[in-house]
Design a protein that fits this description.
The chain contains eleven helices and 14 strands. By secondary structure, it is α/β, with parallel strands linked by helices. The strands form three sheets. A ten-stranded mixed beta sheet has the order 3-4-5-6-9-10-11-12-13-14, with helices on both faces. It has a two-stranded parallel sheet with strand order 1-2. The radius of gyration is 21 Å and the shape is elongated. The structure holds S-adenosyl-L-homocysteine and iron/sulfur cluster.
C-alpha cells in the first residue's frame, strides 16, 4: 500500500482519514497542529501521541519535506537562499528576504518549467515534475525551522509556473492560510504568472484576496512572442483583457513585472506603448533590472534607460517601482542555484 502524503491533506481530509482508522476527533487537531504549527518532520516528535499510534501513522502516512542541501547567506542584505533536495533526488530552491516589514519567502511550484522564457534559468533542462502541496509548504516549513523566524509573506515566484500546477497550488494556498496552520493571510501572498489566460479566469472564480503578479516583460506581441513562447498561445491583448477583468472584479491591484533587457524591451517607444496599453487597469508596474544568465545571452538594461522608462510610465499616471536586486552576490534569481548544482553533479559523474 502506498503511504499517503499527510502534509498535503486539509484539516477536513485528515479528520476523515483518521476517523476511518477509528481514531477520535481530537487526534486530527493534535496531529494537524504538530504538522502545520509546530512544523515537525517526523511522527516520533509528536510527544502527546502514543508509541502504538505513531507506528500506525508511520504505516499509513509519510511526512514529505525538503532537506537542506545548501544554504547561502548574502553578505549585503541577509537574503538567504536554500537549495533543497526532495526524496526522489530532485533539487528545488527558495529564497528568504529580510525586509523592513518582515520575512518574505519566494517559493517554487514546479521542478523545472515548461514555459521556456528566453531570459529565465528555471526552464533550462525543461520540466521535471509538479510539486505536491506538501512540497510547496515544505520549503516554508524548512526555512522557518532553520532560521527560527516567522515568515509573514509569500511570493510564488520561484521556479515553475504556478498556474500550470493549478490544483496543487490552490491546495497549498488553502493550507498555508488555514488558521490552524501558519495562518498567512491571502493579502500577504502574491502569485506570479507568465500569462496562462484561462487559468487567470479560473483563479478569478476563486475570489481570493491574493495579489496577482503578471510577468509581462513586453508591450506588444512582436517582442513578447520572441521572449515568451506562452504569448503565441495568448496574446498581449488577451492577457491584458484578463488582467483588466481580474482587477475590476476583485478590486485588487495587478502587479506587472517587467524585466529590463538591454536593446530588447527597454526603449522609450516600448515605455510609451506600455503606458498606453495599461491605461485604465488598476495596476502597479515593477521594473526589474534583468539578471544575466550566462546561457541566455541577454544584458541587463543600464540605469539611465531604466530611469527614463520609469519616468515615461509615471508621466502617464502609472505607479512604478524599480525592484532592488536582493542577494545579488548569491545568485538569488530563480533557477540559478539548481542549474549550478545539476552542472556540478554532471561533472562529478
Ligand atoms: N513562472 C512565473 C513565476 C516564477 S518566475 C512567472 O513567470 O511569472 C518569477 C519572476 O522572475 C517572473 O516575473 C519572471 O519573469 C522573472 N524572471 C525570470 N528570469 C529572470 C531574469 N533572468 N531576470 C529578471 N527576472 C527574471
Ligand atoms: Fe517558467 Fe516563469 Fe521562468 Fe518563464 S519566467 S520559464 S514561466 S519560471
Amino acid at each position: 500500500m502506498e503511504k499517503k502524503d499527510i502534509v498535503s491533506m486539509s484539516f477536513d481530509e485528515l479528520s476523515s482519514e483518521l476517523k476511518s482508522m477509528g481514531l477520535p476527533a481530537f487526534r486530527a487537531k493534535q496531529i494537524y497542529d504538530w504538522l502545520h504549527k509546530k512544523l515537525v518532520s517526523s511522527f516520533e516528535e509528536m510527544t502527546n501521541i502514543s508509541k502504538e499510534l505513531i507506528e500506525k501513522l508511520n504505516d499509513n502516512f509519510v511526512i514529505f519535506g525538503c532537506s537542506i542541501e545548501k544554504k547561502l547567506v548574502s553578505s549585503y542584505d541577509n537574503t538567504v537562499k536554500y537549495l533543497f533536495v526532495l526524496p526522489d533526488g530532485e533539487y528545488l530552491e527558495c529564497v528568504v528576504m529580510d525586509y523592513k516589514y518582515g520575512h518574505t519567502i519566494c517559493v517554487s511550484t514546479q521542478v523545472g518549467c515548461k514555459m521556456g522564457c528566453a531570459f529565465c534559468a528555471s526552464g533550462i533542462g525543461g520540466f521535471k515534475r509538479q510539486l505536491a502541496p506538501s512540497e510547496i509548504l515544505g520549503q516554508i516549513y524548512a526555512a522557518q525551522r532553520d532560521l527560527g523566524v516567522r515568515i509573514s509573506r509569500i511570493v510564488l515566484m520561484g521556479m515553475g509556473e504556478p498556474l500550470d500546477n493549478f490544483d496543487n497550488v490552490m491546495k497549498f494556498l488553502e493550507l498555508v492560510s488555514d488558521e490552524r496552520g501558519l495562518n498567512i493571510g491571502m493579502r500577504h501572498i502574491s502569485l506570479s504568472t507568465s500569462g496562462i489566460v484561462p487559468r487567470i479566469y479560473d483563479l478569478l472564480d476563486r475570489r481570493l484576496q491574493l495579489t496577482l503578479s503578471v510577468s509581462l516583460h513586453a508591450p506588444n506581441d512582436e517582442i513578447r512572442s520572441k521572449i515568451m513562447p506562452v504569448n503565441n498561445k495568448w496574446s498581449v491583448s488577451e492577457l491584458l483583457g484578463a488582467c483588466r477583468r481580474y482587477a475590476d472584479v476583485t478590486s485588487r491591484r495587478i502587479s506587472f513585472e517587467y524585466a529590463m533587457m538591454q536593446g530588447v524591451n527597454d526603449s522609450a517607444e516600448c515605455a510609451a506603448e506600455l503606458a498606453g496599453k495599461l491605461k485604465g487597469i488598476l495596476c502597479h508596474v515593477n521594473l526589474i533590472p534583468a539578471n544575466e544568465v550566462p546561457e541566455k545571452g541577454h544584458k541587463r538594461s543600464n540605469d539611465t534607460d531604466i530611469e527614463k522608462f520609469k519616468a515615461i510610465l509615471e508621466k502617464a499616471g502609472h505607479t512604478v517601482t524599480v525592484r532592488r536586486t536582493l542577494g545579488s552576490d548569491i545568485n538569488a534569481s530563480c533557477g540559478q542555484l539548481r542549474r549550478e548544482k545539476i552542472k556540478e553533479d554532471n561533472l562529478g559523474k
